[in-house]
Amino acid sequence: MGNSALKSHLETSQKTGVFQLTAKGLQEFPEELQRLTANLRTVDLSGNKIEALPASIGNFLQLKSLTLNSNRLTALPSEMGKLKKLETLCLSGNRIERLPPTLGQLKALRTLNLSGNQISEFPLGLGTLRQLDMLDLSRNHIHSVPPEVSDLQAIEINLNQNQISGLSPEISRCPRLKVLRLEENCLELNSIPHAILSDSQVSLLSVEGNLFEVKNLRELEGYEKYMERFTATKKKFA
């Protein structure tokens, strides 16, 4: 990409606060963006070949939305934790294996999309994200969901297409969780904690494509209570 094209992008971004440069074969985060740290609210660099984010990403203190889907990121710098205004972080289709602990400092974060990465352990330390509405961890390599999941404030957790065979009953204690997606995992019927059905806020439990037939959920204790919540939610949006 020519310098003049980048220059005109930068000039526009200075006015709009938005920098979008997708599918241009970029191999690194554009250094020139440092000039706009005070202005930028939205950055979208999806569909490039970026392998790492610089520590200077922490300087973009006004950033509300950062999208780097379909790049080649393997890790995130700890400086990400400085982005206190960030509300949306989309990193699907990368090669990320783990998250820096500082991600728990993103107090304004509402949407965290990490689908299609190389994450093999359920990320801990996200319970401090009090505004988090949506956590997407689909298409990773997660094997189990630990008790610490109960700290999460998310309204929806998407764990479709992992390798999950174990699910902690503590997930029923997530205070705001309404939608739990577990399609195409390795769950047996007896791996579904009854508490999700009888004692949680979950009104949509999606479990197609596991090691049991969905209709057999009816056999589990608490199923009727779950169906009451499911039906009530359906009526509300009908």
TrEMBL record:
Entry GO CC: cytoplasm
Any Pfam family hit: LRR_8
Signal peptide annotation: none
InterPro entries on file: Leu-rich_rpt, Leu-rich_rpt_typical-subtyp, LRR_dom_sf, LRR_domain-containing
Entry keywords, A to Z: Leucine-rich repeat, Repeat
Protein name, per record: Leucine-rich repeat-containing protein 57
Species whose genome carries this gene: Oryzias melastigma
Taxonomic placement: Eukaryota, Metazoa, Chordata, Craniata, Vertebrata
